[in-house]
């Protein structure tokens, strides 16, 4: 009895403390919540809950994260914080919102307040349903968010308007496309049908973005495709002497250019009130790779920190890998992912207003967060209609 009462008191104290903390935290946040979609550049552990062949971020991934991260499994495909974490930190959170599949019953309740956000990203996934066997496809991630929103509205006594207002002010972050290019390596796509394949990627991406818009997203941050040909794992495949694969980079650039074009016209044609920024991860990483002298820390821009073989990039990063010691001096953590240090530099560039036109367009991430108010609630409500499966339209 007394133990139970003591426990109840402790719980009550914990609730009071956490809500006090929550309030002061909420005050320094620039947005009510962050919702994250996409691939391993932003996954914070969803894949830990998927069976193979979905890739998992095992040790030594996460080696540089604070040990206090719950569960010990970090689920991040890098040595420390990933792009979702660092972007969330820039807008006032401790790190990325939790992986959706990791939510405890209490965390699920917190999510329904619309003041927390969630991370639906899945390492290995792409834009297309055929990309990333066994991962959570972008289509499924958007459907999970649709389910989240429906539950928010049911749970929120103040109704649709309040939920829509909070969602319209929240940051929706998507990092995808990189894995779709694997189709050119395994024969599902060829150079001769590259235009059609890239067009299909962009069309499908826009369908998913329009669905997020319909669900209330009004502040959208997109990360474009990396210079995939300069990833250490790409340099060491196909036998091109460890140089960047120019043809692979050209595929990424063509996708990135078409995405900018189609996003601008889709906003003008059918997404009034949508504010967005496309960050050129391509440009930011190209800069780090070709001009290492611009950053006196990030000097190693060719080989991977964790792996094995040539450029430390012929083998996957695993517990038995060669691990570099100066991890802040490497651009690449393993054969495909950046280090926390590279991601920090990338996020600094995305938020820098002076980077507009160089690394972000039409506005920087900083302007996206502090910029114009999102669409009035009335517009959002008019757009409410039942979830339609996107399949039919693609
Ligand atoms: C997907 O993975 C499963 C399990 O490893 C395998 O049986 C199946 O053949 C794979 N499908 C494709 C299309 O590669």
UniProtKB/TrEMBL annotation:
**UniProt GO molecular function:** hydrolase activity, acting on ester bonds
Q: Name one Pfam family in it.
A: Lipase_GDSL
Q: Does the keyword Hydrolase apply?
A: yes
Q: Which N-terminal stretch is annotated as signal sequence?
A: 1-19
Positions of transmembrane segments:
none
GO BP, one annotated term: lipid catabolic process
InterPro entries, A to Z: GDSL, GDSL_Est/Lipase, SGNH_hydro_sf, SGNH_plant_lipase-like
- Is Signal found in the keyword set? yes
Instruction: Enumerate the PANTHER family for this protein.
Output: GDSL LIPASE/ACYLHYDROLASE FAMILY PROTEIN (AFU_ORTHOLOGUE AFUA_4G14700), GDSL-LIKE LIPASE_ACYLHYDROLASE FAMILY PROTEIN, EXPRESSED
Name of the protein: GDSL esterase/lipase
Species whose genome carries this gene: Triticum aestivum (Wheat)
Which gene is annotated as encoding this protein in its UniProt record? LOC123119717
